[in-house]
Amino acid sequence: MKELRFPITDPFVLEELLPQRQPMIMVDALMYYDKKSLVSELTISEENIFVADGFLSETGLLEHIAQSVALHTGYTEYLEEKPTKEGYIGAIKKAEILKTPAINKTIETEVKIIHAAIGITLVKTITKLEQEVIATTEMKTMLKP
């Protein structure tokens, strides 16, 4: 398979790269990818199941971050012509949420792969809203065998 052109915003392509399905898809753009990092985006819609009182919840923010990690894995597997695998958060070592975004705002998450082996990935993430850091995490994700 060949590399796709960035940004990737086609919802059907993103659905192929993620194990989640609507209404649980929490990434609407893949802006950048390399073997050790990724940048994703999400525009918060009023219909988002994690929105309450006009803001994305902390749970929704963490789900977006976890799906950004999954998107890195999914795009890597796409390039290797392998099927997308399901995964889950194995552990959140550190998470700091400074602000939750309002509807109609776009957040950007940068994922840095610290270590990946045997289906376990350790990452650091930074999520920004209009260049302001609103969340940082260190987490471990695991792929289902």
TrEMBL record:
Domain of life from the UniProt record: Bacteria
InterPro entries: ApeP-like_dehydratase (IPR016776), HotDog_dom_sf (IPR029069)
Pfam families: ApeP-like
Name recorded for this polypeptide: FabZ
Native source species: Marixanthomonas ophiurae
